[in-house]
Target: Nicotinate phosphoribosyltransferase
Amino acid sequence: MMDNLALLTDLYEFSMANGYAQTLPDEEAVFDVFYRKVPDQGSFVIAAGLAQVVETVRNWHFDEAEIDYLRGLNLFSEAFLTQLAEFKNECEITAMPEGTPVFPQEPLLTIQGPLWQTQLLETFVLNLVNHQSLIATKARRITVAAEGRPVMEFGARRAQGPDAATLGARAAIIGGCASTSNVLAAKRFNLPSAGTMAHAWIEAFPDELTAFQKWAAIYPDNASLLVDTYDVLSSGVPNAIRVFKQLAAAGHRPVGIRIDSGDIAQLAAGARRQLDEAGFIDAKITASNALDEAVMTSLLKEGAPIDNFGVGEQLITSASSPVLSGVYKLAAISQNGQLIPKIKVSASREKTTLPGLKRVYRLYQQGTTRAIGDVIALADEKLASGMTVVALNPLATRSQQQLGDFVARELQHTVLSPKTTAAVETDCFAIQRFSQQRLAELPEATQRLVNPDHYPVYITQQLAELQADLIAQQHAKN
Ligand SMILES: Nc1ncnc2c1ncn2[C@@H]1O[C@H](COP(=O)(O)OP(=O)(O)OP(=O)(O)O)[C@@H](O)[C@H]1O
Ligand SMILES: O=P(O)(O)OC[C@H]1O[C@H](OP(=O)(O)OP(=O)(O)O)[C@H](O)[C@@H]1O
Ligand SMILES: O=C(O)c1cccnc1
Model:
């Protein structure tokens, strides 16, 4: 169970909620979560964090200490504080399942409910979704670069705080990692924990060979020895081989070695030669040390014989692109039971919001699992073959296009409502598999790590017209 995150909310959300309670008490609202820019110049983000959003909203409440604290700010009416104390969630959440590749501007999560409640959700929903989606997206890049070799998540010590370490480890698995060194994350999310040893173990003994032998005596079937404390090729690997021979003679199977500094390609090649010559062709070589997808790609291109990767700081902080600026934007307000679409107008088309309650569809070529593009439509629209759509990409050569035949799959599903609770997948490896299936449907060129192709995302003509009308109405008012 997560802590109650009810106060993990920017002050202005409470200020607005208190104000709505006095001015627009019966209004309902629709908010969309989406992002505009993909980290690392990729073409999509892997959605993650939904399980924690659902858990947090289910557990969302204000206890006496929280109400007293808010009262002490001298900003809020007693009526509002009572409303908080008696509060029950009435919001409905529809969302893309975790692991879904999601493109810019697409609502990956939509929240509908009383205006004041939906407003209060903004900060912690964005916090959970932005963080985990960022790390899952980075983990996908890193595991793609590993070309099928297992990647262990090693980042806890470099993560920006305990939650970033633990939720980040969860997101790393969703994005493709095989295991984590973070025991809390492993326990909490039922993940495989994995690890080797640190230089301290080697340094603690009088010499490297003794250190390896002591380890092997305690963990005869888990001897993955760190060979770079003194000198990889003249000391580390020869000592590891000595210990492996003793283990093999006693009927054990040595696991392998880890290299954590120096020129990893050259050291791995030298270590591989020595291990093979000694007959340990199954001993695995693990590489670590500030790895990311660019270094890993370069190492493998150089032919480095690496079997496993341990990746920490660059993954857990998404160091090369550390922000996913997902936003939470008002799309509609109810008046007398009728939804009125709302818009935020901006000088840039990219920053002008898509109004109204919407649905996102992925279109597949008939009879195949090949995704050909996504369409954002108004909720009451039906998609039809031959319909005209408008490209969201302002640089698209053809802004209007007619769709051919397709099969459409709706991407969002209801995951929480006041009446029902749908099951949200919480098994991280099931989410990882789901993600990989969804990725396999996308054109390969959109998945490249460098200069990926643009994937077509369209809005329906009706949505485009609604947006244009609302912009015109605003211009007329100003
Ligand atoms: N053959 C290689 N090709 C490309 N990058 C490499 C290669 N070998 C190592 N690297 C990377 O180069 C960087 C070297 O970092 P750094 O200078 O901190 O390492 P180091 O001095 O060898 O190790 P440490 O400081 O941990 O003892 C790391 O990101 C490492 O993964
Ligand atoms: O480099 P990362 O991808 O974050 O992987 C985790 C790092 O953590 C450990 O290093 P340690 O904290 O002992 O410091 P070091 O960098 O001096 O080896 C380990 O030996 C890796 O180098
Ligand atoms: O188990 C390991 O080898 C490990 C764990 C965390 C960080 N660096 C290495």
